[in-house]
Amino acid sequence: MPQLFLMMVGPSPLMVIVEFFFLVQSITLEAPLRGFPVWLHNIPGMVFRTTNKAFMDEMQNFTTMIVDMVKKEKLFASQGGPIILAQIENEYGNVMEPYGEAGKTYIKWCANMAQALDVGVPWIMCQQNDAPQPMLNTCNGFYCDNFKPNNPNTPKMWTENWTGWFKQWGGKNPHRTTEDVAYSVAKFFQRGGTFNNYYMYHGGTNFDRTAGGPYITTSYDYDAPLDEYGNLNQPKYGHLKKLHDVLHSMEKILTYGNISTIDFGKSASATIYTTGEGSSCFFGNGNENSDAKISFQGKSYVVPAWSVTILPDCKTEAYNTAKITTQISMMVKKPNEAEDDPSTLKWSWRPENMDDFLLKGKGESTKTQLVDQKVVSNDQSDYLWYMTTVKFRKRDLVLGKNMTLRINSTAHVLHAFVNGKHIGNQHAENGKFHYVFEKDAKFKSGRNVISLLSITVGLQNYGSFFESVPTGITGPISIIGRNSDETIVKDLSAHKWSYKTGLNGFENQLFRTESPSKWSAESVPLNRSMTWYKATFKAPFGNDPVVVDLLGLGKGTAWVNGNNIGRYWPAFISSGDGCSVKCNYRGAYHAEKCLTGCGEPTQRWYHVPRSFLNAGDNTLVLFEEMGGNPSLVNFQTTRVGSVCANVYEKNVIELSCDRKPISAIKFASFGNPNGNCGSFEKGTCEEINNAVDILTQECVGKEKCSIDVSTEKFGAPDCGGAARRLAIEAIC
Q: What is the total count of domains within the chain?
């Protein structure tokens, strides 16, 4: 099977199609967009994504460089290579309106610049309804069946079918149902689609500081068919695989067939693709509540609500998006058996040295104003110190017992210190990144040092003029003095401010395994902010993916053997409402529809690739910003714990424990069983032959087994005319 590629250049990263089923289907391993480099923002006069000479010069330089690299390796299809399409810009149409006429001029310039590079393959623009010719405009979203290209000669292409959604700190776990993803794909092809590409097909991890945002989590699992660790996300993976197998079998008819449509009313329709060799049919039902009964060519069919039935020969149902005939895999975490006591690591610690900042207010540069963090730090670190010195006379009117420090902040997280004492911290919540911090503070006559630590958690990377979104401490900053008669405000915004990017521990690379710095194993503190912790551990046995459970910690960064595994923030708990035990796949999906994890840490487990691990001892280093309890930290593996199925008769179900043997059949019943995976119960009718015994004989001890769900195998229980089902739960 040939490997074909789609290249995205300009403001978007390289996107690689790693598998090509046929002309109209593809899978992508595109990395989540991290955005533009901050140095680009800091070029004088720079404005992104508009008719700004500085930006257009840099974009043309970058695009030309990428194209020249690809041409040098002869990778374009016009050179005999695998790249069949190239993309310029990314979803600009979604944010274009505020740019006005300059935006329209810019997108025309993008098209002309790209076309002049003469790559020999078509260029595409996604979400760009006014894409200039010969650019091909394409669709991104949860659904693209209603999308129409702006040129009738352009194929209908779906460049990003969102299989789930990303997660943000303080948020819950988003899920998009398997049935709905399959429905969106089948509906797209029913309505003339020619190209479907998944975003994401394989989830991933934002290691180090690569998470965008603000507030995108370290995990970018995305509820994708392949999860963050590379495990099959069943049933999503298997159900989509079966869908594409059916579509693949219809390739010739879908590509060359004439299309006709029958409207049955109430959102039900039939689409027939016909060639001289035969016909293939799609029966669609977009009704959210009612099944559709369809009569077609003398036969009757029932199409469940919000589903599509595919009949490759227009007679026999081969697939329905709402009928899952693939196993459900239940993932579990297992303790680290390589450790004698996997729940207890031996810790040493050391404080972050902040004396120069807290007591001296000593930085690297000074300004008589508050400066955006992006400008000062150039994205070299999440951390930026803002420091100033304030002198009071003994009888200064602002001095008194009731004094506060008030900071208007756009820092994602803010820590405030006065004369070396930590007076408090605050972070943005609920999507509001501009807040007012005000805490009691003690000032004295004479010299006072105010030290503010601004922390970013991923920079803005989407939206109109996103580069102008302020970051850091923009002010004003005031000291408030209150007495019985009046309130006095002393504005410090125009004071002389000293700036220092980063923290000493990062500069001294305390996270390196061979770091010569001194660590203490005595009196390891708990719930202490700005503290470094270190422990050793043994790599878990086997090949299962490894995670570290950081429950109990506050916020910070973690390293394994010097490899940065990303930002952690298990202390950020999601709200307690808005989750659903069971999600109804029917009806249009949106990112808030199917949520789990209410009242829990946004992210508790963090991926540790086995390539980061040594055969012997390994080192974990934590930098804890807010204060936490490292004694709860432990390493685990993630694997399939059990597999389930709930399948109608006349289907074949395959059970697999992902290269591990099936050890037992916990439940099996053929008839009308109730419940869900993990809580199945027998119904009012049941098989004549013992299903548990049959499945034990056919499956236990094997890595996978196939079961023909039929009355010949299990007997024919009388279920009053209702369709019979086989429910199974097998232990891995």
A: 4
